[in-house]
Amino acid sequence: MTTQTAENAPAPGREPRIIAFCCQYCAYSAADMAGSMRLQYPPEVEIVLIPCTGRFDVILALRALEKGADGVYVAGCLEGNCHFLDGNIRARKRVNYLKKELESVGIDPGRLEMYNLSASQGPRFAEIAAEFYGRVRDLGPLHKNP
Amino acid sequence: MIIAERKPVEEIKGFIRDKKRALLIGCRGCVTVCNAGGVKEVEILASLLRLDAKKDDVDLTVDELTLERQCDPEYIEELASLTGGKYDAILSMACSIGPQFIARRYPGEQVYPVLNTCFLGGAMAHGIWAEHCQACGNCVIHLFGGLCPIARCAKSLLNGPCGGSAGGKCEVSDQIDCVWHLIVAKHMEAGALDRLLEVDLLKDWRTSRDGGPRKITREELVKND
Amino acid sequence: MTRPLRSGSRLEKVLSAGHFAVTGELGPPRHARAEDVREKVHHLLGNVDSVNITDNQTAVVRMASMAASVLAQKEGLEANMQMVCRDRNRIAMQSDILGAAALGIKNLLILSGDHQCFGDHPEAKNVYDLDSVNLIRVLKLMRDEGRLLSGHELPPDGRPALFIGAAYNPFADPEDYRVIRAAKKVKAGADFMQSQCVYDMPRFRKFMERAVDMGLTEECYFMAGVTPLKSLGMAKYMKNKVPGITMPDSYIDRLKGVPKEKQPDEGVNIACEQIQEFKEMKGLAGVHLMLVEWEHMVPRIVKQAGLVPRPRI
């Protein structure tokens, strides 16, 4: 028998904190490419490597939000190109499910998103990061008093 | 198993409005199997409730715990050290038996049901459950090709189908198979349609809920302390 | 076919004497004004042998079938009181049967009833303690053996002498089972049965041939349901939207062939031709005219189809 208590998260600064769960086969490689191409994207986006977006679980996003993230996105392979057949399809369903749950507690579902891209789309990776960063910055901090 | 589903968050939030410390308790029985109230669902709901409070800077603690079962007193006993003013709301994420057992054992606690207990059923596919039994207390499915007309016919007809059956679907919804269509089809395949002329049951509902709340006592199992 | 009279109702006597019977249908109002029942009765009086009084049809709350039946009979029109299994348990059913008989009702027609989700109280709890086949059995037990389901004996002059009616649907799925289900109701004790409205004559004829072969028409009077088509739109709606109804293209073409204002006349013509066919169909004992909210057309149809005057019994 164990009990868990939410730990209080460190306060994000004025800039939003964003966690991106990236599939190793596509988005993570695309991030590498963006780096080697010296493309700029917001440093507030912190990348978490996952073996496939099929590994993404709603609790990962919830913990991130609880512990101080202002937005979370999941980036997987293009639909039809998942290395594990349908990991990205499942991830999209989970993202859509969690969007509704977030809405039910008054959190803008736009703080969560699912993106699809291929390993060769370095510029697209930078674009997604910038776009999502802009969206979350506009929404403001998630917690009144983090 | 018992199939349940979580209440809307709004309703659950209503339970803990003005409360500061809540304990959310899952169950590893049926509701774990039907993805309604196991460890994972406890984690998700607790996180959502904490997020909700935190974003508005409301002081709320939601602790998590999942018991082996909530329909056996020995597991409910495990809560003893967590009661007595430690929490001002206990949210049970079991079927409605759980919150009843907790409330009975710990009369001083505020206990709330987080799930709606829906029916006795099975998984048709991952994520899809359907009602198969109504616990009428006197099983007769062998007379109907192994299908239950009491639980699975909207009118519990023992001599169906009614005139509302069309294209194999129930008049209530095209999402419901007409169980009588299935029963007839099964008998037709077996060349045994005439058998259905015989079934003419008059149901004795005393073994069902209509006989009042039910209780089973197995003397050989009862311990006399 | 002559059988010993069970109820002595007008409908039973007409059928028993070998006349081609005609029944109508009347939906009680959604309020307590008796005048509305009387008004509908007057379209039917003298044109039908008895009239079905529906029991909260489509699960919409209406004046009680028993009360409207009594009102109709006071006007001189015999009632076929309907009783559905949706709203009563076996206690209320048997009680209502005794009460109906005591009030002079002679014909009782038993149905499962539409599910309450179709009506004005979808949040209601339904009953379905007994299904229609079992309710037929219970009524027969009360009438012929003079016992309630509990075994309680009824005095010989306190048995409900009711002519037992039921419904059959030759057009629902699966086709091969339909005659078996009808047979089940006959076996349970139905004296007369009325069908769903008929448009597919070949399928209906096939059904009746099987019913005759099985000997069902020797034990029970089968009546065919007739609902005249008011318009081309109604015919198309029935064809496409109403489950369990097959609408032949020939009827649709006939309605298409006449201007809109003449379509009701053409619908009546079709119905009258059907009635002629029914009159000659082996095993068929009568027609059941279902003119929902078109009751005033009944006098014209029975005249055109040669169904009046009704026999004096």
Topology summary:
The complex is a heterotrimer of chains A (146), B (225) and C (313).
Chain A: E1 18-23, H1 27-36, E2 45-50, H2 58-66, E3 71-76, H3 87-104, E4 112-116, H4 122-139
Parallel strand pairs in A: 1-2, 1-3, 3-4
Helix pairs in contact in A: 1-4
Chain B: E1 2-6, H1 9-16, E2 21-27, H2 30-33, H3 39-55, E3 61-67, H4 73-76, E4 89-92, H5 97-105, E5 111-113, E6 115-125, E7 128-133, H6 149-152, H7 179-189, H8 195-198
Parallel strand pairs in B: 2-3, 2-4, 4-5
Antiparallel strand pairs in B: 1-6, 6-7
Chain C: H1 10-16, E1 21-26, H2 34-44, E2 50-53, H3 65-74, E3 79-84, H4 90-102, E4 107-111, H5 132-145, E5 163-168, H6 175-188, E6 192-197, H7 201-213, H8 216-219, E7 221-226, H9 232-241, H10 249-256, H11 263-280, E8 284-289, H12 298-304
Parallel strand pairs in C: 1-2, 1-8, 2-3, 3-4, 4-5, 5-6, 6-7, 7-8
Brief synopsis:
Chain B is α/β, with parallel strands linked by helices and 225 residues long. Helices cover 27% and strands 19% of the residues of chain B.
Strand order of the largest sheet of chain A: 2-1-3-4
Q: Using CB atoms under 8 Å apart, which protein chain pair has the greatest interface?
A: B-C, 30 and 34 residues
Integer tally of domains of chain B: 2
Average pLDDT metric of chain B: 95
Task: Give the DSSP E fraction of chain B (strand runs of 2 or more residues).
Answer: 15-25%
CATH class placement of chain A:
Alpha Beta
Secondary-structure-derived class of chain A = alpha/beta
Estimate percent helicity of chain A. Answer: 25-40%
Along the chain, the helix and strand elements of chain A come as EHEHEHEH
Distance between the termini of chain B: 32 Å
CATH class of the largest domain in chain B: Alpha Beta
Low-confidence stretches of chain A: 1-12
What would CATH call the architecture of the largest domain in chain B?
A: 3-Layer(aba) Sandwich
Strand order of the largest sheet of chain B: 3-2-4-5
Order of helices and strands of chain B: EHEHHEHEHEEEHHH
Straight-line distance between termini of chain A: 29 Å
What's the number of extended β-strand segments of chain B? 7
* Tally of DSSP helical segments of chain A: 4
